[in-house]
Amino acid sequence: MSEPDCHDVKLLHEWFLDGLAAAPEGIALRINDRTWTYAELHRAACDWAGTLIAACGRAPQRVGIIASKTPEAYLGFLAALYAGGTAVPLSPEYPVERNRAVAAAAGLDALVVDRHGAAQFRDISAVTPLRICLTASADGLASVPGPPVVTPDGSESAEPVRDGADRLAYILFTSGSTGYPKGVPVRHGNISAFLHAVLPRYSLGPQDVFSQVYELTFDLSMFEVWAAWASGACLTVLNRVQALAPERFAARRGITFWTSTPSLAGAVRARGEVRPGSLPGLRYTMFCGEPLPAETARHWSLLAPNATIDNLYGPTELAVACTGHRWDPAGAGAAGAGGSVPIGRPFPGVRHVLLDDDGEVSGTAGEFCVTGEQRFDGYLDAANDEGRFIELAGERWYRTGDRVRWDGAGLVHLGRMDGQVKVQGYRIEVGDVEEAVRRAAPQLDAAVFAVPAPSGTVLAGFVLGCTALDTTGLLKRMADHLPPYMLPRHLWPLADAPLSRNGKVDREALRKEALRRLAERADSSGTSDT
Description:
Luciferase, domain 3, disordered N terminus, 530 residues
């Protein structure tokens, strides 16, 4: 076990203030050709925080942010923290039904929207007692009934709060086995412990430029945003098309620190258009979110020969990541189980045990259980805590559901112990996807799997009880309940499912059939997941 690391707890936004002190006139944020210096972003966040406080008559409690990598997304998050509130990111691309459920569960009392997110304003305001909707432009919202819609123009600024380290910094919602999103509340102390642990792994400063690929609803974005801002570096926002063409955009924007899920790097590899040595300016590449195939790491090291490759691991409940492995293609432990890169050693402040199948502590392999400063206290809905924690030696430990083995290179990930999978870095309960099929087609059932493809893991499965299927129509109805990343790439009709000896659907046989069909598709088309 690792020994805890003692340090003063910072509020999350105080890491931004560190960057402000280091490089006040340095570029803090770039979105396309628009830039904001640290000083400009700070002043704007103070104005927005002042507006939130004035409209609420006090510090806002929970600030929902329905914005997608626009100025409102970053300013809204920072302003929520400055004002002493908790940021709750939502995606305008998610179904209204999902965002309504999240808003109600979080108990939002303020909302920040961009032009895209404004389309959901009426639905969100109907389920939670909002005091204010803050937006850069109130066009199209003035006539919508609900709370006041205001812009920060001419508002009184508020200085960032400096106390309350035990408060919640943000709440992220993940896929839940119940069919509803699970709220993961993260305290300032949790995410601060992560930053204290992870930043010393890198030599960063105002000269660095970070890629920002992921939506703020995905916890990997918390690394991108706050590691950059804590260092006085530039955060450069990329859309998915740009992220899939690093040979163009990394060089054009001068990116030195690239963050990626293995699936995204696998998709770049599958394109086959990036030549070795095309990314000489990268100093670091950080992979996280799912197992990293050694071949993906080797391919990336050819593209970015000067980059140090770091493989991090951690669920949202442990504040982004809690272990790390510095990859050396020639070193021992370059590949672990199944040809994947080890997840390494726990960070300072993180203590772990491994539980065997009998629930006993094991020194070699078992379920990865964690406690320490990064561990969250429990889900927003305490009913979701059942089975996720264990008491050992008078302490509460979070059960990750991941099976790992300890070897000379540290921890090696051996896979999940339940029905949870990672697709494009997103955590998904396949039961949620199957339930969405049943809701969209009540007379049918489904069996969905995460299966490998050259561009990364994809969802594929069978709709049971039919011989023909309007796949487009079914997926459209499923999209009313699921965000885009949870929609299967492939769905096939199947009249009669194979059964196991005990009379249940033989899921292993169906998974093999899915793999066979994908292989046939690859042979006939030259690709495997289009």
